[in-house]
Amino acid sequence: MEQRVTAITLGVSDLARARAFYEAMGWSDARQPDDEVCFFQAGGMVLALWTALGGHGAPGIELAHNVRSPEQVSAVLEDARRAGGRIARPAERAPWGGLTGAFADPDGYVWEVAHNPDWTLDESGAVSL
Predict the structure, then answer these.
(1) Domain boundaries, the chain
(2) Could you give the count of Cα atoms lying within 13 Å of 28 in the half-sphere of its Cβ?
């Protein structure tokens, strides 16, 4: 696993209200592909607001680590399992066209591991929407 966080996802109960709050705080250029999630570019990473985080809605937080190929999703999940983590979601095709899975660290913090063919990672690992 490369040392980087590509996204922080906040579980929200009302996406329109949460988006309006961040926009009032000066965040701009939101991308909202549907009624459940909204993305803001935040330097070399992404802040996501999602109503369906963990299937429970708000509150919640999930970190994300995007990888360069679909094969790396399973490899990182296996590395996490061997290191003492728990597989929270096995690798599977996502409705948005990529591959995603998740692990929890020993304290329960959840990391999504994803390959999204629509998100570009530069050489340093910074993501661009």
Answers:
(1) 7-128
(2) 1
Output helix, strand, coil percentages for the chain, rounded to the nearest 5: 20, 35, 45
Domain 7-128 has CATH 3.20.20.150: no
Tokens coding 90: 């096995």
Residue 61: half-sphere exposure toward Cβ, Cα within 13 Å? 6
Tens of pLDDT, residue by residue over 13-37, are: 889 999 998 999 899 999 999 999 9
Per-residue tokens: 5: 């966080």
- Comparing CA positions, the residue from 111, 29, 106 lying closest to residue 66 is 111
Q: pTM, whole model, 2 decimals?
A: 0.77
